[in-house]
Specification:
The protein has 178 residues and is α+β, with helices and mostly antiparallel strands. It contains 4 helices and 6 strands. A hairpin with a 2-residue loop joins strand 1 (21-24) and strand 2. Strands 1-2-3-4-5-6 form a 6-stranded antiparallel beta sheet, covered by helices on one side.
């Protein structure tokens, strides 16, 4: 019953999110609509025949983990831990023999705020394609990274740093090849 109560809370947060998808070049995140959350658990908490895939052993998918979206560049799941009040958000490499989640945000709410920051940077990314003002994009990219790292203090900074490093490469690629 506790997880059901939690489910209603994270569903409300997802439904009220200002940004549900953001893509900057090849990088991005997509959150699922609440009406498909249950079916998106296939392959994670249950298989296509409905068999339970969860367990308590290291590397197994946990019952309290719920997939709420995906990394759009690799398809890796974005998952929350419903056993924790703030619903910390993780990602994990899809297709490995075991699950080893990486903490991206201490709460779903902070991750949603991170998506809002990314949306502003996405707008700047599209603008730089027209203006060719890479310096403005680099400046905003740096400030956005600092803001996201502060917002998600105590999480895996390297994930965010690597993502933001790839963004500058993508801007250069767009400018070179159009």
């Amino acid at each position: 019953m506790q997880i059901y109560g939690a489910k209603m809370n994270y569903i409300d947060l997802l439904d009220e999110a200002k940004v549900k998808k953001t893509e900057i070049g090849y990088e991005g995140f997509e959150l699922f609509q609440s009406d498909i959350i249950d079916e998106e658990q296939a392959g994670y908490s249950f298989d296509l025949d409905g068999n339970d895939l969860t367990g308590e052993e290291d590397g197994k998918w946990r019952k309290e983990w719920i997939v709420v979206g995906r990394d759009t560049s690799l398809g890796d799941p974005l998952l929350i831990d419903t056993s924790k009040k703030e619903f910390p958000l993780y990602t994990a490499v899809h297709g490995e023999e075991s699950w080893d989640p990486v903490l991206l945000s201490p709460s779903l709410e902070r991750f949603l705020k991170s998506l809002e920051i990314l949306r502003k940077l996405e707008t700047e990314f599209h603008r730089v394609k027209e203006t060719k003002d890479v310096a403005a994009f680099e400046s905003m990219r740096g400030l956005s990274l600092i803001e996201i790292l502060r917002l998600n203090e105590g999480c895996d900074d390297s994930f965010w740093e690597e993502m933001f490093d790839r963004l500058i490469e993508e801007v250069e690629e767009v400018l070179e090849f159009g």
